[in-house]
Amino acid sequence: MLEIAGLHSGYGSVPVLDDINLAVGKGEILLVVGENGAGKSTLLRTIGGFIKPYRGSIKLCGEEIGGMKPEDIARSGLRLVLDGHRVFPEISVWDNLRLGAVIRNDKKAFEGAIEEVFAVFPILKQRLRQSARDLSGGQQQMLALGQAFVARPKVLLSDEPSLGLAQALLPPILDFLKRWAASGTAIIIVEQHIDIALSVADSAAVVERGRIKLTCAASELGGRLQQMSQSP
Question: From the CB of residue 130, how many other CB atoms can be counted at a distance below 10 Å?
Fold first, then answer.
């Protein structure tokens, strides 16, 4: 569903990503891990259109989206949930969720999606008329995911869903992503809590200094990382 080939990207004249090749299929969850500064977030921002690639290909369902504007990529069916709970703080929880569905214009589908969000994150229903700025960090992360969910994207990119959260809040968020993938969405997660995230992932990729060091099944990642650490 999402195919990345020979991708090079960075910030101005400062290169970060070097010949990235990745793919994630319909209904699959790919976990991307690596040390801080390895290029994980740069990868997601490049896919989402916030950073223009130097060269290479990013295809969504066979159509090239590399270098397109973020809003056009979103209309094509890809959503990026950035780290730091990027919601619209001055408007209500309800209005934030409505904005997620603007490009769909399907009232019935929106209502069904909203109920699914509330089933997983009931606190959002309780605080529907409150401003998003009054939510806790964890609740804002739930809102950001809910906003993306109601858009029903073909591909979701989630950058550090655990950032700023109590660790106890991460399992229900990851369970939500797992249920989401089961409906056919391809998902890429960048996450530091590897052990927890691996429980929902199908495959994994290790990024090191802007390159893909390893790709494997999620169930194999622990052993493969141990082998890498023992290699001379």
Answer: 14
For residue 11, tell me if it sits in a domain: yes
Three-state SS at 69: coil
Q: What is the pLDDT of residues 108-148, one digit of tens each?
A: 778 888 998 998 889 999 999 999 999 988 888 889 989 98
The CA distance from 86 to 83, in Å, is 7
For 103, 116, 173, the CA distances from 111, given in Å and listed in that order, are 15, 9, 21
In a domain, 141, yes or no: no
Residue 130 inside a domain? The answer is: no
Q: How many angstroms from the chain centroid is the CA of residue 226? A: 26
- Dist CA 107 CA 218 (whole Å): 37
Strand partners, 24: 2
User: CATH no. for residue 216?
Assistant: 3.40.50.300
C-alpha neighbours within 13 Å on the C-beta side of residue 89? 8
